[in-house]
Hints:
Shape: globular
Structural class: alpha+beta
Largest sheet: 6 strands, antiparallel
Strand content: 5-15%
Amino acid sequence: MFVVTGIFFNSKKPLQTNLLHFPKPFRWIAPENHTADTKFLICCGGVMIAGEILILMVLSLIISTFMFRYGDFFNPIAVAVSALLPFLSVMLKMVLPEEKQLHQFVKVLTLCGLILLSAEVLVFNGKSLTTDSNTTILTVDDITFEESDQLKKQGDSLIIKGDCEMFLNTLPQNAKGFIFHMNQEINEDARIFHVWMDMEDDNFRYAYQIVADTYTLGNENSCMMSFSPYETLYSMKLHFAQIANPVTLTEIVAVPALPYEFSLLRYLILMTICAVVAIIIQCRLYEVAFDWRKPPHLAIVGMMVMLCTFSATQFYDVVKVEDLTEYEKDKNYSWADPYAQTFHALNNGRVALEIEVSPELEKLENPYDNSARRESNAPSAWDYAYYDGNYYSYFGIAPVLTYYAPYILMNGKLPTTGMANDFFATLSIFFMCMALLSAVRLMTTKPNFLLLLASLPAITACTGAYYCMEFSDKYFVAVASAQCYIALTLWLGLWGIAVKKKLWKCLLFAGSGLALALTVASRPSVAISAAVLLPFFFGILFRKSETIASRMTQAFSFAVPLVAGLGGVMAYNAMRFGSPLDFGATYQLTVSNVNANHLRLSLLPASFFHYFLQIPQMRSSFPYFETNCDHLRNYGAYVYMEGVFSALMNPFAMAGFLLMPTAYKRTLAGFRQGVTNRQRSVALALCFIVPIITAWMDFCMGGLNLRYICDITPLLFIGCVIVLLRTTDVKKKMYRYILTVILCLLSAFLIWVMLAGLRDCMLLRRNPSYYDTMRDLLIFWH
């Protein structure tokens, strides 16, 4: 191909070989001032092919001699990529001699291809180094086990249906690992299951010690575990737990080392990273400032926003319409989720839910006391609001009005909570990205383009939309709805402040006000984040350069939809609980008496620790960290606690929080719409102050929960990104710029890795093999 291509281009225009600058030993191929001909092309191609064959032969020799191999040497695609790049480099230099940047880029990529091909053998498969190639197949007859309902023998296989253990007492002494040949039926019920091994050797002769721990989907060869016995290996004890579908174990192969496996996915990902980094360095893209007036910039940012938005599809709860429950007005839906029940009640002219109240509950003096309910054995609807002999939903009505009602009326079927979560979370990702862009436009000057792009996946992954879809229950519907509408509030509000035309301002402010009312109707505590708009709104109201009529028109554009929406919410509250400001949270029938909760200033330090600084909990298997709940046990009263991933444990957020004082040292250029630096400074301060206040209120009134963390993340993370953009100077502190970009990308990556460990949630239900793929990609040393 190289020769044919060279002859073709040479026929169009003579190709000069003196541009190639061969090393001295190879200059005989291309004498100076020589024009490429067939002989040159054949010699040049032959030398490159010989070099590539030599490299592959050396690597193959290492694999065949010093590694335990269970499959092919190399992936053909990886070899093709690495082999074609040198030819491409030579051809480009002859055909396009003036494109020096392109030459350098391909040369760097060629070198990266060679290094990564070698690294895949020598580094990522270092666990396979051994000169022993003897394997032992352990069949069912070699396994000692106690047959039960959880573990049964069927022919030459073992059927594992639940938690069980088995023993391997006759083992080859060269064994350093096991390959489990087992299969689990892959369907909607398939889940990764837990496998771990205990070992007895000369170090612990009479006591088993855990030596390996993992989760796996159970596909063929997907579960491989290594161990390193001291001197004599006596016995191995295998544990299986958290079995969803029956697992068929056919045999276990004892191997001297885990087998060599070339990972095409890892190779292509690393090559892509190398290519992107090379382009950024070659073209000095790190110096480019984002310009709102340039269509290419807007197009690239738009593509990144859409990519972030479409990432939500990995969590979708895919349900066929025909599998949904038909809705009929006269039926009883007491089994449905609170939002469907609320719609059904409103559709029948009621505000109370159609749930029967037990006589035992009505007789209780204090039905909100969980201890009293238990003592009297009073049946009750868990986590509903009980007031004046009726059940109500204390969750916001916004999801009912903006999703459930339209969907049911259009389709005649009841949607699932997963569908509602997907709808609101997907919109919240898009609105959140747009809110960030509007904030960047208003509160920064010449933001770095690449850092802005890197911040979009970070804020997408860390804000909470993924959590809402991952857990996908009735509690997260309100959270997803609140995040959706607060992001829309901030986007339209900040956009309206930045535009020139008064008509557009009024329309955007009206949309922002309506979105804020829907935020209150979703989750009132989240609406406090709209306080970041106040400095700019006050600036408009007191701007003497505009007429009073213009200022009042803009103010009423925001206020009228907001007041109308809040009026509807308060009227709905009054119809249910007798007070327009009562959302029903104090009437919950839940784990504790919510009326015992009240604001206490003494809980401010604890709330800051739990919501912002609590470190993740380590776990024994990949991904090695997870949500955590560190109970301090000195709150002075009961506090509801669940595991969380606190806000500042996202690396980019911690960097933004720590650099906040530095952001105030930078003087920004004035904004032409009358926005002052004082307004920007106050707004930036509110991005950090409001989340702290919200966290304190949530902790006092509700406790600690991942849902409550989502109340503070939208505004906090916008503030963190603004700080990073304002404090990053490529020319003065390149190290800070590089570190900041890495932290943004690392933040998104860590969330995706952490979600891989949640076996019963939507990501793994939607993509069952995601865990095994991610583990094998990252954990290459055992």
